[in-house]
Write a structure and sequence with these properties.
By secondary structure, this protein is mainly beta. The protein folds into 5 domains: 347 residues, YVTN repeat-like/Quinoprotein amine dehydrogenase (Methylamine Dehydrogenase, Chain H, 7 Propeller), CATH 2.130.10; 78 residues, Carboxypeptidase-like, regulatory domain (Immunoglobulin-like), CATH 2.60.40.1120; 81 residues, Sandwich (Immunoglobulin-like); 170 residues, Galactose-binding domain-like (Jelly Rolls); 83 residues, Immunoglobulin-like (Sandwich). Strands 47, 49, 52, 54, 57 and 59 form a 6-stranded antiparallel beta sheet that branches. A 5-stranded antiparallel beta sheet has the order 1-34-33-36-37, with no helix packed on it. A 5-stranded antiparallel beta sheet has the order 48-53-58-55-56, with no helix packed on it. Strand 13 and strand 14 form a beta hairpin. It starts with 10 loop residues before the first strand and ends with a strand.
């Protein structure tokens, strides 16, 4: 079998969390317990019911009057995070997975509820059914689906490997016999149409297609494909059977669309997510007509138009949750199949929502972007619809497809690296496919020679130089003569960065045109690292997740607050930092430090040329979750080759989930400055409550106080004093002589002036508000050069 994934088009939409689109709230029913999945039932007499799974049981809600949902019946059961519901005829079938909040490992088996008289009976008959297969008795199942032939498929059950156990509801709808099993892979969820089961083999990270035409002899999958985030949770086939839509239940994942007309070559044709870089997690996607209805946890329900599966466009949203970002909260399930057209959403914390939605097709825009000189397709091109937040990249053939839910006239900006952009006015209408091609004229190019020297003009070899213009990034390393060449380099504005260990990273911008032939970058000696470049930091770890890594931070949240950082410290050259694990996955705890430690170690530093060196660094620490008070730790160390000194220690009692700058006087630790190394140690205590812990390091530097006119001592010939020291909110600067005046500055360890102040004659003190300063070491500096060291806590 051939497994092939071709990424053709990636749609990017910018849509504010909490904003709703083309959907209205009709009714809501709060619950006092956490909800899980949802389904629906209509009795044929115009009455509609929401079938709501809850942590402690199964609820039937009359939603015929959508503005006034009424709880009709409730059947208590074992306590479990997971319940799933489907209907065959007038029976509801309810599974539960692990009874993770019930002592003693009880089971309800397969709960079967009679809905035939639910309009007049608030105590419906029900059965707890425990089918067996090969000597095993059903106790749990994660999900179920019932096809058009009345065959019930139990997914993720405790029988076999947890693939799919098949029951025939047409034989006995209160005790359906087992007629077969799919036992190759564990399936988290799935659906069936005709003789094909489309399943989520979550631990293989694949969507699989399985022939179930002969239930007694189900073999291996006929076809499969790896899903974008390799954690395939749910799959649903299109109305015509030509495409399947999947979701991965991890942070920042997509609804992905696949052409399944050839099972030996299942091909991805599009993927969409509600908010890039937000980390929100999709859960279940269902297809009705040409629309995809997806419960997307903290973003609520999203509706996408898949009329053209290669161009899936969002046309509806209702955000039921006040939370945002990654995390398992909000909309667990959505049911779009009610005869009324109403949609039921089960929000884990907010309860049942009944929503109105009138299906509306998107406005479709597609075309080809080519080179105006050669007519060749431009594979690196893209189009942006101004004011809409929508942009789309072209595929290898220069073809693009995008769209918007709202009709109107838009300015479409077509661009590509090395080409002049073109802006075209396009008028789009709902349900109408508009074709707009674009031809871009090539920009001129040149060859740029670069030189990197130190402050004395000496050429520096092995220095990394990066040039970026927003489209492309070019990286070169200087040769023995300190030179690099970028060729060809298209005209335009570039950000240029250069760095090497032992020098301060330089970043600037230049305009490259026909008159630009060279650039010289001067690097000042000094130890500085904002991790724009890899200078050879190392780690020592006993953990398998949460290991220190240099990356552009991918944020996670816990209970709505940041956990792993989503950005580095702002104001430096590029976007990297060191973080403890950077796979956002399904949120906080997915790639955090677990049951061990990880230590980040800098390259060695020779500080013998420094008079009074200070180390400054930003750190991030977050510790939460689990049971009991979080008790994990981040410790900063200094090692001089002979001994290790603790600089600082952070735990959950201190400010968390933010970049905080701290500074340390190295001579307070050691006078051995020839082999100095900085270390950042993060530990998750083993078997002490399962707490989450994340950390980060950024903007590391060593500065010499003497080089910044900052001396280490306290010059008191004018009777200057500062108190309290350390200070938290206010600092008092005092003099002992009312007959003099004093002008002074507050400066940081790099000599940067943070404020100028005066004590006039007749006064003896000045009180300064320092709440806005970061924690760290600062100095009072007088105009005569006197300095007093003080600490902000």
């Amino acid at each position: 079998m051939k497994r092939l994934l071709i990424f053709c088009l990636l749609s990017v939409f910018s849509f504010a969390q909490g904003q709703n689109l083309n959907m209205t709230l009709l009714g809501q029913l709060p619950y006092t317990q956490t909800l899980n999945d949802i389904w629906g039932y209509a009795d044929g007499n115009g009455n509609e019911y929401a079938l709501v799974g809850a942590q402690n049981g199964f609820s039937i809600v009359d939603v015929t009057n959508s503005a006034n949902p009424v709880k009709k019946a409730y059947i208590g059961g074992v306590c479990s995070t997971w319940r799933d519901v489907k209907v065959w005829g007038d029976k509801a079938y309810v599974t539960h997975d692990s009874p993770n909040c019930s002592p003693g490992n009880p089971s309800d088996g397969l709960l079967i509820v009679d809905l035939s008289d639910i309009a007049t009976n608030s105590n419906p008959a029900y059965w707890n059914y425990f089918p067996t297969w090969n000597g095993q008795t059903l106790t749990t199942a994660h999900n179920l689906y019932i096809d058009e032939n009345g065959i019930c498929y139990l997914f993720g059950a405790n029988i076999g490997v947890g693939g799919a156990l098949l029951l025939d509801c047409t034989v006995n709808d209160t005790a359906p016999p087992v007629i077969g099993i799919y036992n190759e892979y564990y399936l988290h969820d799935g659906m069936v149409r005709g003789d094909t089961l489309w399943g989520g083999a979550i631990y293989q990270g694949e969507m699989v297609a399985i022939d179930v035409s002969n239930p007694s002899a189900i073999g291996s999958a006929m076809g499969s494909v790896s899903t974008p985030d390799v954690f395939s949770h749910n799959a649903w086939v299109s109305q015509d059977g030509s495409h399947v839509f999947t979701v991965d239940e991890v942070s920042g994942a997509y609804v992905a669309a696949y052409d399944v007309t050839d099972l030996s070559n299942i091909t991805e044709v599009d993927r969409v997510q509600p908010e890039p870089n937000n980390g929100v997690i999709p859960h279940n996607a269902y297809v009705k007509g040409q629309f995809i209805y997806t419960s997307w946890y903290r973003s609520g329900i999203l509706i996408h138009d898949a009329t053209y599966p290669y161009n899936v466009i969002r046309v509806g949203q209702y955000d039921s949750s006040p939370l945002s970002g990654g995390g398992f909260n909000g909309a667990w399930g959505a049911y779009p199949f009610a005869p009324s057209g109403n949609i039921y959403v089960s929000d884990m914390e907010q309860g049942l929502f009944v929503l109105g939605y009138t299906p509306q097709q998107a406005c479709y825009l597609e075309g080809t972007i080519t080179d105006a000189a050669t007519s060749a397709p431009i594979a690196t091109s893209q189009v942006e619809l101004l004011t809409s937040g929508i942009s789309e990249g072209a595929n290898l053939s220069g073809f693009y497809a995008t769209g918007t839910p709202n009709a109107g006239t838009y300015f479409a900006v077509y661009s590509a690296p090395g080409y002049t952009s073109d802006t075209i006015s396009v008028t789009l209408a709902n349900g109408v496919l508009t074709t707009q091609n674009a031809s871009l004229s090539p920009l001129g190019s040149t060859s740029l020679d670069g030189s990197v020297v130190d402050s004395n003009g000496t050429a520096l070899s092995r220095v990394t130089v990066v040039m970026s213009n927003g489209f492309n990034t070019y990286t070169e390393t200087t040769n023995a003569n300190g030179q690099v060449t970028f060729s060809p380099l298209f005209y335009g504005t570039y950000n240029v960065s250069a760095g090497a260990w032992g020098y301060r990273t330089e970043c600037t911008s230049i305009v490259v045109d026909a008159n630009t032939s060279s650039i010289t970058l001067d690097l000042e000696p000094g130890y500085y690292d904002d991790f724009s470049f890899d200078f050879g930091w190392s780690n020592l770890s006993t953990v398998s997740t949460g290991i220190w890594e240099r990356a552009v931070p991918e944020g996670t949240t816990y209970n709505g607050a940041p956990f792993n950082p989503d950005v580095d410290v702002q104001g430096d050259c590029l976007d990297q930092a060191y973080v403890t694990g950077n796979d956002a996955g399904s949120g906080a705890g997915w790639d955090d430090v677990d049951e061990g430690f990880t230590t980040l170690r800098s390259p060695q530093m020779n500080l013998n040329g420094y008079t009074d060196p200070y180390l400054s660094v930003y750190h991030w620490f977050a510790n939460a979750g689990g049971s009991g008070t979080p008790n994990d730790t981040m410790i900063l160390f200094l090692n001089d080759g002979a001994a290790t000194y603790e600089l600082d220690r952070f735990d959950q009692s201190m400010p968390q989930s933010q970049w905080i700058q701290t500074s340390y006087r190295i001579l307070d630790c050691t006078n051995n400055l020839s082999t100095v190394q900085f270390r950042a140690y993060v530990a998750d205590l083993v078997s002490t409550g399962g707490h989450f812990v994340e950390a980060g390091i950024d903007q590391f530097e060593v500065v010499d106080s003497a080089s910044s006119s900052i001396g280490p001592g306290e010059e008191l010939d004018l009777g200057i004093s500062v108190y309290p020291n350390p200070a938290m909110e206010q600092l008092t600067v005092a003099i002992g002589d009312r007959g003099i005046s004093l002008d002074f500055d507050i400066v940081d360890i790099s000599g940067r002036n943070l404020g100028s102040y005066s004590i006039e004659k007749g006064n003896v003190k000045h009180i300064i508000d320092v709440k806005g300063l970061e924690s760290g070491i600062y100095f009072i500096r007088t105009q005569s050069g006197q300095t007093i060291r003080w600490v902000k806590i």
